[in-house]
Structures are given as C-alpha cells and as structure tokens.
Amino acid sequence: MEQVLIQLIPVAAAAALSSVPITATIFVLLSEKRGLIALPFLFGWVLGTAAGLTLTTLAAQAIPARPRQLSSLVATLEILVGGALVVLGLVTMVRPRVGEPSRRPSWTEGIGSLGPLPALGIGLALNLRPKAVLLFAAAGLAITGAHLNAADIVVAIAVYTAIATSTVVAPTLATVFFPERMEPRLVASRDWIAAHGAVATGVVMVLVGIVVLGVGIAG
Known about the structure:
Blueprint: H1 2-16, H2 19-30, H3 34-61, H4 67-94, H5 106-110, H6 116-125, H7 130-145, H8 150-164, H9 166-177, H10 179-218
C-alpha cells in the first residue's frame, strides 16, 4: 500500500495543480451566483474525479492476462502514459500564445452566469480533458500494478481524490465561510494563474511523466 501511495501522490498533485479547474473555480467563486453554483460545481468535480479513477482502475484490472503478463503490460502502459504526460507537459509550456500572455479559456469567464445543473455538469466534464484522462490512466495503472485488495483500492482512490480535488475544495469551502477574506486572494490567484498557470502546469506534468516513466521502466 505504501508503494502505491508513493506513486499516486505526485500524480494526484499534478491533477490538483492543473490550471483549468482552478481557474474555473476562481471564476465561480468571484461570480454573483456563487451561492447557487459553487457547491454543485465542487460536487461535480469531486464526483467526476472519483468516478474517473474508479472506471480507469476497473478497466485496467479487466485486462485479460496472467499475473506476469499483466505486470509486463502495466509497465509498458506506464511507459506510454509517462511519455504522453511528458510530451503534453512540454506542449503546454512552449505552445505559442496569440495576443496577451494572460489569455485564458473564454468559457471560464461565462461559467459564473450558469445555473446549478450546468455548473455540476462542467465540474464533471472537466475530468474528461486529455490531461485528466492521462493522470487517471497513470493512477489506475499504479493501483492495478500493486495488486491491492478491494479495501485498499477504495482507500487509494479516496486518497487520490482528496489530493487531486484539494485545490478546488479548499478555496470553495473557505469562500463559503469567509467570503470577504477570500475575495482579494481569489483575484490575486486569478491574475497569477493567467500569467503563469500554463508554464507551472506544464512543468508539473513533465515531472510527473518522468516519475511514471521511471516506474514503468523499473517494471
């Protein structure tokens, strides 16, 4: 169990530090409708994260193979996933940006005008991004390769979910209880992420990809 947590924690941290869900959360919390949409968005994000990793883990464990063959296949898939994370991280860091460097996805600015149900849907849908799917794959392969029992798998998924969603859960709950204190911090965070979020996310993705690659090569 300790070994799989060592592999899961950096992958979950990469998910937590992804700029897209953090940016979406900030716009939700700075909107006039945050009282209606903040908690549905949060629920969608947490539920989607837990469900995504659960489904990925089940898919990995459903691969028909003998134990030795499965271990070899998991290691190969980890190498592929790790390589994909490195490439995606590099692309995120170096891709050209047209206009202002602070450009952000246009849909994030309109998320604050949505209702509770669409906000829930967006929270769920953010787990379908290529980065999120690759991280689910890395985490699911780590769990599968560790040959855990059912109870330990549940614990591993819960730990991943708690870490991966912490950067959405913490500011959301803090804003619900201390809105006046949080608003200036949210604005400052929004501006910092707009200027540096892509590079920071890319660096984390590359580092996690290297870790996953190393695990796969080590077998």
